[in-house]
Write a structure and sequence with these properties.
- It is a single chain.
- By secondary structure, this protein is an alpha+beta fold.
- The protein is built from four helices and seven strands, in the order αβααββββββα.
- The strands form two sheets. Strands 1-2-3-4 form a four-stranded antiparallel beta sheet, covered by helices on one side. Strands 5-6-7 form a three-stranded antiparallel beta sheet.
- It is elongated, with a radius of gyration of 22 Å.
- Residues 1-19 have low confidence and may be disordered.
Length: 198
């Protein structure tokens, strides 16, 4: 199929191709300038629009539920059980409202993120900036764990890539049949250069 990302080869990696879906011109130019070779795969995270929609919808739903609870209990006695239940429900809704507003602001400020995997490196793109890294530019990888109580590490959610210049950034893990070919290719290339992978 034209423009589709091919499936994994025998070695588990995707065959490099010119364009697996739309790639922004600044990313293509940056990858060419850095000599990253052919595009292999793209991993997109939430976009600015989707983050904004999720945040706004969460905030609006929380406000409507809080208003509905207020209307339901305004004629009830302050000490009534209905009022006490509504009070207990208001607190999580208030946290939901704050989370929704914060998520909307984060979406507008940071924008969407995408990782473009090339034969010879990686481009990390944010709303207003793109950074390209050859495999030699990456000094190490460390797993990003789900947080658990009492300091226990949960499942691996992704990996933090530490470049020789600039700030570290995370690549989410997307497992299919127990493997993530996108992340496997990064790990293999970084390990081949003797860089630490935890």
């Amino acid at each position: 199929m034209e423009g589709a990302i091919p499936g994994p080869d025998a070695d588990g990696y995707r065959t490099p191709q010119a364009s697996p879906g739309p790639v922004p011109d600044p990313v293509t130019r940056l990858a060419a300038d850095r000599g990253l070779g052919a595009l292999v795969d793209v991993r997109r995270q939430l976009t600015t629009a989707s983050m904004t929609i999720i945040g706004v919808v969460t905030s609006v739903v929380c406000v409507l539920l809080m208003w509905g609870l207020f209307e339901l209990t305004k004629s009830a006695s302050f000490l009534s059980s209905l009022h006490q239940i509504a009070y207990a429900v208001h607190l999580p809704l208030l946290f939901g409202l704050v989370w929704g507003v914060g998520y909307t602001i984060r979406g507008l400020a940071q924008g969407g993120r995408a990782h473009y995997l090339y034969e010879n490196g990686l481009v990390f793109a944010r709303r207003t900036r793109q950074d390209a890294f050859t495999w030699q530019d990456i000094t190490g990888l460390s797993p990003l764990y789900e947080r658990r109580d009492q300091g226990r590490e949960g499942k691996v959610l992704g990996y933090t890539i530490t470049p020789s210049r600039g700030a570290p950034f995370a690549v989410p893990l997307v497992l299919k049949d127990g493997r993530d070919p996108f992340m496997d290719r990064i790990i293999t290339n970084v390990q081949a250069l003797g860089r630490p992978v935890q």
